[in-house]
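Hi all, a correction to my earlier message: I attached the wrong file for 3-deoxy-D-manno-octulosonate 8-phosphate phosphatase. Here's the right sequence:
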Amino acid sequence: MIDYDLKKIRALAFDVDGVLSTNNVYLFSDDGQPVRTANIKDGYALQLAVKRGLQIAIITGGRSPLVRQRYERLGLQNIFDGVSVKIECFHQWCESAGLQSEEVLYMGDDIPDYEVMKACGCPVCPYDAAVEIKAISRYVSGYCGGEGCVRDVVEQVLRAKGFWMKGLTDKVAFGW
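and the right structure:
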């Protein structure tokens, strides 16, 4: 369980490589872009969180039209790619969204995420994160990046807010 008052979380932000996808990239794309994985259960949890009113952001150094397309289809509107200094992007997003840092859960896995994780209220990471990231995390998921770690933390937040398994007959719970 995440050691934080998850009821006060209004927003969640995620890195891509090593969090929303595995640490592996497949280098066989025709246009030279690395191909990434995406976990279906992570996707379900993210789209449900959006529909339940949480703000979701992706902050990544990579640029991939396929990544953008995947998460836009799930309803995410805050996709920041090609970000070289994540902390600046994080502060700008929080300011524009009217968020206090303690209202944000951020999941990262490696050194480029370090400053954001120190700044957010609830830093969490996948099981296979770098040792420096694990050291500053309030929670280390039992799942590796791209293998359900996002579902793990999103589900915990939604459960704490009473939104998980609520209204199973609602279209909101099943709309993709």
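Sorry for the mix-up. The chain has one domain: 6-173.
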